[in-house]
Each structure stands twice: as C-alpha cells, then as structure tokens.
Design brief:
The protein has 1 helix and no strands. The protein is mostly helical. The longest helix has 61 residues. The N and C termini lie far apart (94 Å).
C-alpha cells in the first residue's frame, strides 16, 4: 500500500484492530443483555404459570362443589 504520509499504513492497521475490538465488545454486551432478558422473561413466565395453576385449582374446586350438590 503506497500512501504519501509516513506511518499511515500502521495507523490504518491500529484503527482496524480497535474497530474489531469494539465490535467484539459490543457483540458480548448484546449477548449478555439477551441472556439477561431471557432469564428475566422465564421468571415472569414462571409467575404467570403459578397464577394460572392457582386459577385452574379454584375452577376445579368450584366444579367439584357444583358436582357434589347434584346427587347424581
């Protein structure tokens, strides 16, 4: 590469290496945020599942109460 300023090829290489490091760090941060969001979503889902299981149990008890009063 023939550029008129002394040290320009070295400067370009240094900037390229810095750019690669920034890309690697940004990718790591994005992966960490995705993993954090995935685990926090699973906690929210667990709470929702527990809530729905409680509602199902209440409905089953209500059906049992209705069924026991019919005397079939």
């Amino acid at each position: 590469m023939q550029i008129g300023l002394p040290g320009t090829p070295e400067l370009i290489i240094v900037l390229f290496v810095l750019f690669i490091w920034v890309v690697i760090i940004a990718a790591g941060v994005l992966v960490a945020l995705r993993i954090k969001r995935w685990f926090s979503d699973s906690d929210d889902q667990s709470e929702r599942i527990e809530q729905l299981e409680g509602e199902v149990e209440e409905l089953r008890e209500e059906l049992d109460a209705r069924g026991s009063g019919d005397d079939r």
